[in-house]
Amino acid sequence: MPYDHRNTARRTLALALAATGCCAVLAGCGASQASPQSGKAGASQETPPSQEPQGESGTQSRPPLASPSAPRSTRSPVPAQGSRSLAGRTVVIDPGHNSGNFRHSTEINKKVDIGTNRKECDTTGTSTNAGYTEASFTLDVSHRLRDLLTARGAKVVLTHDGDRPWGPCIDERARIGNAARADAVVSVHADGSAVGNRGFHVILPAKVRAGSADTARIVAPSRALGERIADRFARATGTSPSNYIGSGTGLDVRDDLGGLNLSTVPKVFVECGNMRDPKDAQLLTSSTWRQKAAQGLADGIATYLGG
């Protein structure tokens, strides 16, 4: 979650964690304090301000309990009928957070430059009440998305594959997309807002020019990418845009996320749902629904790229 949720949300999460004897690491998702207009509330350091302290995309989550990793389908993905090839296109997928962040609080709490200010390297991300972590969710969906895009001929690069002890930091995640000269970058997240807050939203970069950040050239194409994803994600999953961020559009513009500020290629964050709401959590923990989510992301990316 790329959020810096409101203080009330943070207090709510802190109390919940204290009650269970769990400790959360505040940092990383990139949540910003979202206003009714701006959307997200601090999910990951790159996630909007929901209602809990999060990092570059969202919420801080409890340490992993019994994270159910639902098995991925073993069937080879088949390109949609009539879809054009994405050969020659490069897509970078950024699985939000890392399960190892829980054990590396010192490293992920160190601040890095995001252009407009300095922010924590990363955060733990959020989790469902049952302990299914955002990091587990994002990696699973990212793998499914990679398979779907590869089947369409795209070159896919992951910012990490659960193969490092922690991180990468939000600035490094941005550099990976830039170095790949990606045609599109999608950072996969899930929010950690209050119960009753439901639905998905896509975070778009604001026009920022400060320090090492200059998003002028990517604002328009990133919006186009985000709009395509929002449309196709809703179709594939049957879920609605967020009822608490984006005023029903499913789109939120933010200037406080390092992953967006430092990007030189079209990039968006996708908060697939709210892990702290029981109804959304039921969807996010379903392997069937996660496949639909990946399909929606793939269809949105392909539509944006003309595939």
Automatic annotation (TrEMBL):
Residue ranges of domain MurNAc-LAA in the record: 174-302
PROSITE patterns linked to this entry: PROKAR_LIPOPROTEIN
Gene3D superfamilies tied to this protein: Zn-dependent exopeptidases (3.40.630.40)
Signal peptide: 1-27
Key word Electron transport present: no
Biased composition (Polar residues): 33-60
InterPro entries named among the record's database cross-references: MurNAc-LAA_cat, N-acetylmuramoyl_amidase_3
Residue segments, region Disordered: 33-107
Alphabetized UniProt keyword annotations: Hydrolase, Signal
Compositional bias of kind Low complexity: 61-80
A Pfam family it matches: Amidase_3
Listed PANTHER family: N-ACETYLMURAMOYL-L-ALANINE AMIDASE (PTHR30404), N-ACETYLMURAMOYL-L-ALANINE AMIDASE AMIC (PTHR30404:SF0)
Protein name as it appears in the record: N-acetylmuramoyl-L-alanine amidase
